[in-house]
Structure formats: structure tokens, C-alpha cells
Design brief:
heterodimer, A: 114 residues, alpha+beta, two-stranded antiparallel ribbon, 55% helix, B: 188 residues, mainly beta, Lipocalin, eight-stranded antiparallel beta barrel, 2 helices, 13% helix, elongated
Chain lengths: 114, 188
Amino acid sequence: MRGLQSIFLVLGLTLGGAALGILGSWNYLMEQPLLATKEKQKVTINAQDEDGQPILDEFEDPVVCQALVPLDPPVPGLDVYGPAAGILGGAGLASLGIFAVLLWRSRKMVVSGD
Amino acid sequence: MRIWIVALFIFCFSGIAHAAPVNVQLKGSFDFLSDAPMEKIEGLAKGTGQISLDVDNVSQLKGTVTVPVAGMETGNETRDEHLRSETWLNASAHPNITYVIESAEVLNEKRKGELGIFKLRVKGTFTLHGVSKPLETVVTLKSKANKYKVSADFQIALADYEVVGASGIVGSKVGKTISIKVNMRGKS
């Protein structure tokens, strides 16, 4: 009974991971960040002239511009973590599949007495 | 008549020796950084300030700097809402973060033509989340004609200001201390 519970737990986690992965990958590939947080990142730009020299303000300090800029694609969210979750979920499903085949074959061998 | 001339001379001379302080209206940005083991949050806020300053006697610097909590941004709207909520900074009850400058000590002073650069140790009262604590920091003040620039870096501990936050978050996803970088400019 306990073994059955463990199998269901592993199966649930694996299917959940795969579902998240499919959903995340879909969001990522279709560039539809429906489930992503619309995160912005602080960007700092040091102003430079045409020769690449820093532009100085009236106090002889480099001019620095800062802003919170939306990222494309937005991170972090399912669109970013989704593919990784998908790989893990897929690997889990593949392992379960191999395990199920091995179990089925071993039972068959026991029944047939080979 | 002579007495009046001498009095006028003394008055004028004293005026040259000690120029009257000027009021400077400052505007600027405040960078804040929470560097916790699980998450690094960089934010920006805008603030205003008013300082009274005499470039010939900078140690008499006085003033107040105010940052509205409602204007603090971390790049994530949901997180910004949490920041303003009762669990964190409680913006409805304590809408502003303030720093009142009470005294200043000149650590270093340089003059380059019109440009004056002063490094000051400033003492004052920092108020966050309705809790006021003394705060000492080093401030760089630059002046050129009637233009001024103030910059400073300091840290505050959230626990000092009774910012508890959601259970288990401070120390894991939000740093116990917040680094603040101030950059303000103004004219007299």
C-alpha cells in the first residue's frame, strides 16, 4: 500500500512538472507571458560621448542614467522556468515509463516461469 | 556721523566674513538594495529635500530629506504593493521616510575655482515606518555657483525600524539590512 502511495506521489509530481513545462514552454515559444510576472530590472547607463569618453556634469562627475526597464521576455516566471520544469518532468516521465516496462517484463517472466 | 560710518563698515565687513545661509531645494533619486541569500532586489525611489547651507561655513548645514513610500519601485508591481502594505512599510499610516540633518562636521574640503567639494560627517534622525532613530553618515556635498549636489551611501537594519515583514521572509528573500544610495541636486 505504501509503495502504491509512493508511486502515485512520484507520478503526480512528474505529471505536474511536465504540465508546468508544457505550459511554460508554450508561453516562452509563443512569446505570451501570461503566467510570467512582469518584472523590470534596474539598468544603469554611464553616458559617453562619440569617442567613448564619459560625459561629465557641471560638478565633474560622470553622468549616470538609471531606470527600471521591462525585460523581454519578462523574468522570472513560468515562461523562463517552464522549459526547465518541462525537461525535469519529461525525464521523470521517461524514467517512469522505463520502470513500468521493466516491471511488466519481470512480472511476465515470473508468470511464464522462464 | 563717524560712528555711523564705522558701524556701517563693521556691518558690511561682518557680512563678507559670514555670508548668510541659502536655502536649497533638492530633488533626486534613492537607490535601495536588498541582497538576501534567496533574492536580490534593486529599487528606485524619488525624493525631495530642503537644506540650509553656507558654503563658507558648511558645518552649519541643516535640512530635511523626504522620500514618499508610495513612490518606491522594485520593478515588480505585486512586490511594490507588498512593500507599501501594513506588513512591511505601511504607507497609509507612515507615508514618508525622512531624514532630518541636525549637525555636520567637515572631514575634507577642496576648492577648484567655483567648484567646492566637501566631505561631511552628518548626524541626524532617520524615520522609517514611524520609528525614529539617530543616523550618522558621510555625505559628499558639491557646490558650483548656485548649484548643489549631495550624495551619500548608508545602510539601515529593518529590525531597528520595526519592519518585520511576512513570516520568514526577512533574512531569506529580503535582506536584514538595506543599502541606500542618495543622489540629489538643487539650486538656491
